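Continuing the series of single-chain predictions for the mutant panel. This is the parent chain; the variants come on the following pages.
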Amino acid sequence: MYYLKRLHFFQEIIILLLFLFLINNYFENNRPVILADGKGYYEYLPAVFIYNDLNFTYTDTLVSQFYDHKAASSGYLPFINGNKINKYFAGTAAAQIPFFLIAHLIAMQDSNLEADGYSLIYQDFVFYAALFYLFIGLLFLRKLLKIYQVPACYIFVLQLVTLFSSSLMYYTNNLPSFSHVYSFAFVNLFLYLVAKYNIKPHKKELYGAAFALGMIILIRPVNGLIVLFVPYIFDSWGAFIVTLKSIFTQNKFVLIVSMAITLLIIAIQPVIWYLQTGSFYVSSYQEERLILTQPNIIKFLFSYQKGFFIYAPVFFILILLGIITSVSKKNYWKLFSFIAPFLIVVYILSSWWVWYYGASYGSRVLIDYYGVFILFGSSFYRTKTKFIKPATFLLYGFFIYLAIIQTFQYKHFIMHWARMNKEKYWQIFLKTEPQWKGLFWMNTYYLKAEQILIDKTVDDQYILNPEINTTTLIDSISLKNIDSEASKHLLQLEYKVNFQQGLDQFLVIADDTAGNNLYYSKKYLFNGVGWEDFEGTGLINLEIKSNKLKDSLLKIYLIKNEKAATIASVRIRIANL
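Parent structure:
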């Protein structure tokens, strides 16, 4: 126990090292990471520091290593009052400024690097920024839990749980340009400073909390709802009111300065809008909005599509433990002061016009609030139930394992990014094998007779069922006579098969008349079916650009990997798209 007490000086570093080990040995750290919404959050930095253009006109012509900027920015740079603006708020970019400037300085000093704001050096430093704010978030989570006298060993476990059993892993590693890890850090800083002020009021905590709140709102305005949890920090309603009165009556100057700090930070966004459009307020999201008359609370929390408690079940357990603890201690103030704002936050966030927030792993918008959820659940670890507390670690271990697997699934196209359901969830549960990749991304095609150019069937059993660990040519088709205006063709392989794991593969190669390769693709038979121990008809569709097929020799091979699998026939169709 002595060593555990000393461990807290290093535990955030240990957690980050574990995370980096996981990335390097399992998840991989791909580039680019400034993508989708994250590119919008980040766009302020090159606009201000490199292109001196807050109307983003440079994106009309700029093409860099990873992007055609006109196409990549079309979704987040709308026209308002005749000028381009960034629909996203500037707080994430503000948090990234030190890292951007370091990257830009390095790029300007090295002739081998592109100092354009988007090259590899900038991608790397956005990842470093996310790691830094993850560290800050975990650090102040520890400090917050320590204030509430949670034992050191349990704090460490709760920190591990926060990162490794949730969506936070994915949005720190794969999409570090998104806002969530930055909000996570500033929310935890805010909660810690409020809790510290509650113990011993001092103006520096109030100023710090004001700064953190300003950043929280500048990053993502809806996260200003974190103030609803402030009463929970206090032991009773009376204690909260006493502190509030003392601020308004005895510390008016401190209050005014604190409010000024928060408002000055928030004011950055209206100033940007004014510089862009001549107006201090614009509706940057335009048609995208909250629809408060149509909340999706049950789906938001429990659906297989994106349910918070489905994809981060550890928080269901922690909140349940917090409820049980509050009820058993008859501490109804703590119960009410957490549950009421929790339900308000869920109600508002689930009322967004796309309640599942598009392509995302789990409920990404609740990452920002993890700190207060952990704080509520941590009350269980201050009780005297000696045997039950360690027993929860077994459950947490499974949740960590599950989240690591699901993060891998999401990253490698096993889990669908937006259209999961109960059947799909259990179909891929804990599955990571290559044959599961891309299963839910298969398109359905309805071909008309006039679209089909070639339609033939191979049913030679000697060809279709060769010896194990062999590659056998199924068919070779000359496409010299294909003459079509279509930009793409569809190659469709329909096969009658039975297998246990679906490890056999189709290999498709198209070579020109000189033998140069034009097209190459391998697909597991499993991808056309989606179930283990299958017997029936599978279908694989390959969309191929016409210039890869015209005047080519198309060869279709079977790679035999599974002894138990047998194929009765393969129907080959080539059609215009």
